[in-house]
Amino acid sequence: MVSGKSHIRSLRSRIFVFMIALVVVAFFLIALVTIYQYNEQAIDYHEERLERKESQLLASIDYSLDQAEIPATSQNIAKIFDQKLFEIADIQNIAVSLYSLDGHLLLCTDACENEEGHLKDIPQDVINGLKQSSENRIVTMEDGDDSVTRSSYLLLKNEQSEPIGILYVPYFDDDSLNDAELREFLIRLGLAYLILLFVAITFAFFVSRFITRSLMNITQKMKETRLEKRNLKIDPIGAGQELFELVESYNNMIDELEESAVKLAASEREQAWREMAKQVAHEIKNPLTPMRLNLQSFAATFKRENPLADQQLKDFCQSMLEQIDTLNAIASAFSSFADLPEPKKEQLNVGEVVKSAIELFAEIKISLKIPDQQVYANFDRTQLIRIMTNLIKNAIQSVPKGKSPIIVVTVTETESMVKIGVKDNGLGIAVENQKKIFEPKFTTKSSGMGLGLPIVKTILDSYGGRIFFESIPSFSTTFYIEFSKN
Q: Residue 217, Cβ neighbours under 10 Å: how many?
């Protein structure tokens, strides 16, 4: 897999990132809570401060009303506070305005004109709300560019609880001090968290490394796990509960793997013996078939009065002895627990060896084309005869019943290589089967084990040679073998 491995974060890196992210998130949460708390405190502070100023102002107003020489009515309110209102404003250090009950301005201790040059009157909705208020007080708020203006309207009453006027007290929320304190606090908090972040990075590095050490050990052990060797178990000492269970599962898996390896080895040995038996049986059958045919042909044609009878008998015996030697070599190899006989190189006349293999199929029409000059190569005679026997037999069997086999064997050479071709007039090899033709056990015949061509390929591979074919479906197939002269 891609390796997708580069796209998957390790557990160690995730633990590291999560711990750092926790510190960063905590910093922002604390900063947000701090800002919110400062804002809430500022609002509470301004509300309480305005209420205190109102209380002090009302106390001074009530005292002035008690000391007044004329009755405290709505008609006399302006006369009573004509000069007194300015004194109260100076003492309280606050701007204040006095209005009649219908909202008209009577007295003002500060600039009271609006932008159009007219005196400001109280809006009617404020007057209506003030009359309905149980607290005789209404506070409105208006956001400015740099501050918030709180407008407090107070309904004044005399000793008989009769409304006599409206008092307006403006208040400006000045948060410059709070903002400076907030910035200073956030800077200090940021520095503290910067140090904490450095500590957290160091801590997260070692903690993540400690946590994942056992997992990395398990990962390494699993990478080194092999079916064909003895695998070491992991010591669970020092692992946490979860990792302990994981280590125990791995160790149990190692035990089961060893048991499976033993069973598999036994099964493979049994299967190997079966394959060996099939291979040996197949190799033995190869020479037996032409031996039987040759024997039948010899019995039918041999006549003692024939002047060539002695030579005919000699050739027959030589052919039989060669096939018996082949059978003996196979049997010897099997009895000594070896594979097929080890190849032995000897100087061969390739044309004569190929001719000897063809003579085993005397009843079949086989054409041999060899160069005029003799072709020599270093090869095992027995192995070459086995190769040719396999190829010729396959060529004969590829021809359908009712059609006479026409087999053509050619021997050619280059400066360093020998090439032998075996062409038949059979049905050819289907395209879907051409890639599997050299696989063990693959066969398109009703009989046979599909070991002939794989064996030929194995023999040629041991000599550094090769086998290949050219096939025309429904017409013919030509198998070629190539091997070095040396």
A: 16
First to last CA, the chain: 45
Options 3.30.565.10, 3.90.550.10, 1.10.3720.10, 3.30.450.20; CATH of 70-173: 3.30.450.20
Could you tell me which of 106, 88, 315 has the C-alpha nearest to residue 97?
A: 106
Are 356 and 385 in contact, with CB atoms under 8 Å apart? yes
Predicted local confidence at residue 147, as pLDDT: 64
Separation between Cα atoms, residue 187 and residue 185, nearest integer Å: 5
CA distances from 93 to 53, 54, 170, 174, 195 (A): 9, 12, 12, 16, 47
CB atoms within 10 A of CB 173: 20
> Residue 137's beta-bridge partner residues?
154
Q: Which residues are CB-contacts of 363 (< 8 A; sequence separation ≥ 6)?
A: 293, 297
pLDDT of residue 196: 83
For residue 381, give the H/E element and its range. helix 381-397
pLDDT reported for residue 229: 62
pLDDT value at residue 6: 40
DSSP three-state, residue 288 = helix
Alpha carbon 165 to chain centroid distance? 80
Which segments of the chain have a pLDDT < 70? 1-11, 111-119, 144-147, 174-177, 211-212, 214-215, 225-231, 234, 236-243, 265-266, 268-270, 272-273, 276-277, 279-280, 283, 329-343, 441-442, 444-451
Domain ranges of the chain: 8-67+175-219, 70-173, 343-484
State the fold for domain 343-484.
Heat Shock Protein 90 (3.30.565)
The closest of 72, 95, 83, 85 to 165, measured between CA atoms, is 72
pTM of the model: 0.39
The confidence score (pLDDT) of residue 424 equals 94
